[in-house]
Amino acid sequence: QVQLQELGGGLVQAGGSLRLSCAASGLTFSRYVMSWHYQAPGKEREFVAAISDTGGLKKYGDSVRGRFTISRDNAKNTVDLQMNSLNTEDTGVYYCKASFPRGSDVVYWGQGTQVTVSS
What we know:
The chain is mainly beta. The chain has strands at residues 3-7, 10-13, 18-25, 33-39, 46-51, 58-60, 68-73, 78-83, 92-99, 107-109, 113-118.
């Protein structure tokens, strides 16, 4: 079965940094676009960052561009999200997503990890 496991969430003060990691199993990792999304309490899930199957292309949501960096290691089946200059609006549950890029609607989600930024 396909599993995506997020690690690295926690409590951090505003202005601080966290690094999230997502470990994938049960799929051919290098075939998938990987992305991070977050969901604040009472809100819909929102896009944070994405990285292409080879790692050559990256996209970021407007609110995180310049602060967050996405990366992947296809040999280890992992994708990371380095989060710097965190603010209270970044608080929420962060989810790892795997999607096949060639016209398929197949998608897999992790269970999420909580990030809380205190003022």
